[in-house]
């Protein structure tokens, strides 16, 4: 299994792109502006998109992608998400005002995209990969994903703050090789992080103590301009942890 970081920033500007990860060649986890780093041919190979929640920085690429590949695919791209996230997509994006409804284009029987609801705890199996949805704690309904392929296990937290749902779910797996976890704000902005339901270094480190595994840890979703402070605060608190700042284009091989 290979995870390619197409976007991992908490904002845009210059080289920064928002959250999107490509698993092997055919799966996306979230579809923020990082999706635009795929070529047209690579977009045509995407068969499944798993969304963590309904915020724009995690799904902005979907409308433009399906429009770009509209005439070149024979099967719909399946968008997997919690029911509340799919409802938001239908109501606020694919509503004929912001964007055409590609779930019924070119016809209702042969659409470009198909929405498929998942519930926390549910597992989707795709060509030897088991993708589990896990509830997390965000300002809108949010989820994480844990992916197993063979003996390797990868997890992505999505957007979240302090919770007691992600960590027990990950502990139930026999192993965890790599964890991508958000930390959007520096410690001096902890009050804002709490209002936005994001981690800061202090709260993330408190939650990492709930994890029984010792995976490689990649930090994502850092706010532009605060990246170095956030990483320095994390490393100062946990100098012995294998912790890395994620960057655009980075490959996570498992």
From TrEMBL:
Alphabetized InterPro entries for the sequence: Metallo-B-lactamas, Pdiesterase2, RibonucZ/Hydroxyglut_hydro
All copies of domain Metallo-beta-lactamase, residue ranges: 17-221
Any Pfam family the entry gives: Lactamase_B_2
Molecular function terms, GO-annotated: 3',5'-cyclic-AMP phosphodiesterase activity; 3',5'-cyclic-GMP phosphodiesterase activity
A GO BP annotation: cAMP catabolic process
PANTHER family the UniProt entry points to: 3',5'-CYCLIC-NUCLEOTIDE PHOSPHODIESTERASE 1
Name of this protein: 3',5'-cyclic-nucleotide phosphodiesterase
Species: Thiohalobacter thiocyanaticus
């Amino acid at each position: 299994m290979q995870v390619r970081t197409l976007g991992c920033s908490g904002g845009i500007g210059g080289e920064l792109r928002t959250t999107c990860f490509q698993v092997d060649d055919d799966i996306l986890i979230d579809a923020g502006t990082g999706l635009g780093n795929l070529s047209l041919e690579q977009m045509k190979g995407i068969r499944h998109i798993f969304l963590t929640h309904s915020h724009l920085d995690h799904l902005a690429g979907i409308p433009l992608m399906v429009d770009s590949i509209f005439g070149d695919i024979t099967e719909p791209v399946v968008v997997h998400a919690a029911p509340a996230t799919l409802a938001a997509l239908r109501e606020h994006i694919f509503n004929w005002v912001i964007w055409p409804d590609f779930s019924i284009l070119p016809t209702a029987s042969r659409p470009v995209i198909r929405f498929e609801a998942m519930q926390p705890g549910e597992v989707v199996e795709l060509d030897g990969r088991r993708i589990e949805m896990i509830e997390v704690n965000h300002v809108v309904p949010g989820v994480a994903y844990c992916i197993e392929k063979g003996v390797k296990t990868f997890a992505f937290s999505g957007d979240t703050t302090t919770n007691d749902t992600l960590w027990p779910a990950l502990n139930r797996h026999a192993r965890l090789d790599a964890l991508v976890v958000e930390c959007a704000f520096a410690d001096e902005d902890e009050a804002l992080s709490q209002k936005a339901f994001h981690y800061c270094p202090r709260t993330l480190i408190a939650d990492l103590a709930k994890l029984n595994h010792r995976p490689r840890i990649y930090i994502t979703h850092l706010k532009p301009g605060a990246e170095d402070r956030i990483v320095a605060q994390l490393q100062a608190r946990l100098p012995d942890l294998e912790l890395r700042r994620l960057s655009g284009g980075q490959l996570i091989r498992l």
